[in-house]
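Trying the structure run again after the queue cleared.
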Amino acid sequence: MNAIVLAPGVTLWREKFSRAEQKTLLDDVLARIEDAPFYRPVMPGSGNPFSVEESNFGALGWVSDKNGYRYQATHPVTAAPWPAIPDALMDLWREIAAAPDPECCLVNLYRGSARMGLHQDKDEKDLSAPVVSVSLGDDALFRIGGTARKDPTRSVKLSSGDVVMFGGPARLAYHGIDRIYPGGSSLIPGGGRINLTLRRVSA
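Done. Tokens:
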């Protein structure tokens, strides 16, 4: 499957996961979510809730609360360890990332007007490894720029099964989800989009 280079260090694979593979992966994700239910994080300081719901898989999970952003080994609501990262995602990482195995898979659930403002993924100690992102469900408008907030940005619509990887010169690129397009996919029960983001945390 041909890769599309969106910018230096930013690569897109359209429908890297076939429709059958998407369904199998989603079933695996939802089974693990039973042990690590979605919750709504809040912003540091203000305590304002995110518009997305989140969970994690892997040895470490990314969390946000009034005390700040960080990685931790347990679910902030249940206090249980995070479930393991699905095998299909580990296989994907080993195929395209050329880096030590990921320790975190952040799971974001977008519904309705949920979005994610421009931000950098910079809470990891290992910035040499890329970030790998998998889309399931409704289409979303993904935006990515440079390593400075005021750099020009590029927008691309992501569909179910698409995979984006950014690393190297784009590892600290600002990126976000401007909107989702509800109703475009029947994959996820109740509708919406699930984004699975694989990250290496430790140096």
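The chain has one domain: 4-199. Worth checking whether this holds up in the mutant runs.
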